[in-house]
Amino acid sequence: MPMRQEEFALYVARVYTRTMQALTDYMRVAGISQTQLARRLGIHQGQLNHWLKKRRSPSAENLKLIAEKTGISLEKLVQDL
């Protein structure tokens, strides 16, 4: 049975919240700032800030980049959904 639009929106919100929590945890454990993480990802700090503040969402390509550059697996980024 396909997901209803409301269910899909909730699913996407959970994925996004989980991903941003994983990034926040990574920064805390690694002892790095948003600026340092943005440099590591090769993006502007403002873009990272928008993701962390839930103003914008990272693309699928950026999620792969996050996994690559931080060592956080894609599975970890979206676990427990």
Order of helices and strands: HHHHH
Distance between the termini: 18 Å
The major sheet is characterized as: none
Mean of residue pLDDT values: 84
CATH class assignment: Mainly Alpha
Number of helices: 5
Quickly describe the structure.
The chain has 81 residues and is mainly alpha-helical.
How would you describe this protein?
With 81 residues, the chain is mainly alpha-helical. It has one domain (5-76): 434 Repressor (Amino-terminal Domain) (Orthogonal Bundle), CATH 1.10.260.40. It contains 5 helices and no strands. Helix 2 (34-41) crosses helix 3 (45-52). The chain starts with a helix and ends with a helix. 11% of the residues are buried. The model has no long low-confidence stretch (mean pLDDT 84).
What's the SSE blueprint?
Layout: H1 5-30, H2 34-41, H3 45-52, H4 60-70, H5 74-77
Labels describing this entry:
single chain, 81 residues, mainly alpha, 434 Repressor (Amino-terminal Domain), elongated
